[in-house]
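Inputs:
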Amino acid sequence: MEYIVYILVALPVVLGFFIGRYIEKNHLKNIFLRESALKNLPWRNTGKKESFPDSYGVLVSGSVVIAQDAFKAFLANISFIFGGRVTPYESLMERARREALLRMRENARSLGAHEIVHVRMETASIGMSKANSASGSVEVFCYGTAIKFQNL
Amino acid sequence: MLLSNIETIPGKNIEAYFGVVQGSSVRAKHVGRDIMAGLKNIFGGELKGYTELLNESREEAVQRMIQMAQAKGANAIVNIRFSTSAIAVGAAEIFAYGTAVKVI
């Protein structure tokens, strides 16, 4: 009987290790490809007080909600005992932020923009308690003003 | 309605200011999405249902802000800010605010 309990506890962690790692690897590969396709669309977080004569401007945004996997949660629980860097979550946040930024930039690209100014990013955790099934998922939201020059 | 998160509307001149306008929306997920999210927490990856939910919610907050600006006679909103807060387990509030202006 005890074995069933052990298996039930260990199975999500093992599944999370294999499938979670596979998903993360593919996601990073995908992000890298899309980023290199958007190299000629600059974005910056300045430009609040600039005026842009002879151009169009429109608000663009991108967001993503990303979940941890069971293996990351397991590793994080270990580091909560010893403290220090929680590297599994660092890579999770990096993926989320890059994905949200990419979605915003792809949005701007589809509108024919030449640059994005005053980019702001914000992060919100979705699950608040352990009881909530979405605990450990995080939302990243990016927004900025896409500028299209009229004389180009 | 022209929207921007900088202090001007590119290519336009601001004629008049009408003050701050705001819009908010509180949304909760439904059980089906919650079960899927529970599964996703084992495998990791994007929670598409939640991404959609928050996007819809943000859209609604922006629409409410636009309605408020239209009621004041504005045709653009500048310096828009968004903020998100989890107010209860499973419910999130999206809040959008900006300054309503008239541009030509």
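Chain B touches chain A at residues 2-11, 29, 34-35, 37-38, 40-47, 50-51, 54-55, 58, 79-86, 88-90, 92 (CB under 8 Å). Flag for discussion at group meeting.
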